[in-house]
Amino acid sequence: MSIFGSMKTAISGMNAQANRLSTVADNIANVNTVGYKSASIAFSTLVVPGSSGNYNSGGVQSTTRYSITTEGNYSATTSGSDLSIKGDGFFIVQGDDGTTVLTRAGDFLPDENGNLKNSAQYTLMGYPYTSGSPAVVVNGFDGLVPINVKDLGGLVARPSDAGSFSGNLNSNATVAPSGTDTLPSANDPSTTTADTKKMSVVGYDNLGNTVMYDLYFTKTSAGDPTATPPVDSTWEIAMFRHADAASGNSPFPYSSDAVAIETLTFDQNGKQTSTGAVTIDDPVTGNTIDMDFSKMGQVASDFSGNGQLNGQAPSAVTDIKIDKDGTVYAIYKSGDPKPIYRIPLATVASPDLLTPLNGNVYAANGDSGVTVTGFPQTNGLGVINSGSLESSNVDLADQLTTMVEAQRSYTANSKVFQTGSDILDVLVNLKR
After folding, report:
1. How many domains does the chain have?
2. Which residues are paired to 83 by β-bridges?
3. How far is CA 55 from CA 5, 368, 415, 416, in A?
4. Contact present, 296 and 155 (Cβ < 8 Å)
5. Total-model pTM
6. DSSP for 98-123, written as a single string
7. Per-residue pLDDT tens for 391-432?
8. N or C: which end of the chain has fewer CB within 10 A?
9. Domain residues for 329?
């Protein structure tokens, strides 16, 4: 056995315990850091081959580990922009230098430019709704932009571009006389039958002005359920601009033609066999509105209907709301929400092997695996909770215990070093 070898072994032990104390110091210092993941030290032996009857001491090697996959406790906050992830995944954030990294620290607040930044000044990234519902880029960060809530102020109007109508058409209604001039679509004062039903829906133009449309439902064929194959019954839908209606007892004739004409077909069971798609082409507003009538049925019951168009009158944005699936909504004074961004989450194959960086963020590396991006609640990713923060996963009692253990082990290793030094002194003194 080499005395110098035992002293070097003691030094490796002291270095390993010093590293252990360093992780304890970091963990205790960050016990209140949002989303912080504790570090620990794993020890492994270093063996020096020896001969029979001669033992060569090796040493100990320390490896730093991070408990990134261990969730901390969750606490409620009063800020809707405070976010936490329940389950797997990381927020995708960007530093001031343009570097894109991952974090679990969701204490986001708007900066002077309206960008959502956490306490480490990393900007939350998301997909905008500028071209409709966004699609995620699975293997990269392309398409992500800073989530900005500053430019949502002012009055915003949304023109109608879609709508729906549901209800029942009476199967016992009278069929309109044959001939195109007997239908409301002909825009003639004498065309409506006793069983022609009328309802109205309200939409909005590009400036937020209300636009009312009159809907007329007229049965055009009773069908023949005994035929082979059975012949479906049919109804005509004719829609006019209410503002073009004539004055007096009858709205006909309207000053302009129908803005939509479509036929609905129903089988012998009253189920609709047509698509129910009706398109409004408004020549005044220039808008096209796609309406869905697929939920209309035909049974022997009174006529009923309920319809609506999207869009909104001029309204100010009063707040933002972030849903569990990562959708960021602008809430208008009228109470209507509008999706403006969607927050994705990212993960890697081995999150505990991510590289920690300043600011409580992580970067992928060869050991952790490549970054995979997806929306919350898909592909095993967690959910986003608004008004909630994930606390540090540091167990303070455990850290204090580890600190005492490291101190004792460091002292014991120092005693081995001191003993080796004393033995060397004995050897030196033998020569005198």
Report:
1. 3
2. 386
3. 10, 39, 20, 16
4. no
5. 0.68
6. S-EEEE---B-EE-TTSBEE-TT-PE
7. 999 999 999 999 999 999 999 999 989 988 888 888 878 866
8. C
9. 75-150+320-349+369-390
